[in-house]
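Field log, afternoon session.

UNIT: design team B
ACTIVITY: writing a sequence onto a fixed backbone
BACKBONE:
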């Protein structure tokens, strides 16, 4: 299927995209951008073309939603893992305060950021 071909979309999806496109044009968005935004909205809501033979032909709506959810959870875990590996110096004072609280460092509430960093390094 060539890029931009809408054969795999249902009539309902095509009507929805046309309605959204008209709405954007009434708001002053140029026609080409309005069309792109409309189809992006339809794709976001329904996961793309739904006619049989498309890439998602054997997936139910529930399965598609679960896949998106799993993907979002994996992305969040990756971001969280990245923040763990960041040095103490790169973290915010609030993050350092939370770590100091979990390690039960005394006097943490009156410490400045560098003092928290030093105390956490000593605690490890």
């Amino acid at each position: 299927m060539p890029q931009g071909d809408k054969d795999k979309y249902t009539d309902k999806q095509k009507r929805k995209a046309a309605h959204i496109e008209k709405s954007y044009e009434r708001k002053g968005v140029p026609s080409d951008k309005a069309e792109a935004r409309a189809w992006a909205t339809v794709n976001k809501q329904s996961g793309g073309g739904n006619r049989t033979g498309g890439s998602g032909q054997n997936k139910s709506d529930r399965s598609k939603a679960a896949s998106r959810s799993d993907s979002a959870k994996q992305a969040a875990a990756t971001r969280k893992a990245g923040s763990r590996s960041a040095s103490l110096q790169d973290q915010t004072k609030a993050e350092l305060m939370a770590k100091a609280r979990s390690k039960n460092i005394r006097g943490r509430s009156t410490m400045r950021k560098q003092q928290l960093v030093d105390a956490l390094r000593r605690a490890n």
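LOG NOTE: Residues 9-49 form one domain.
NEXT ACTIVITY: expression trials, pending approval
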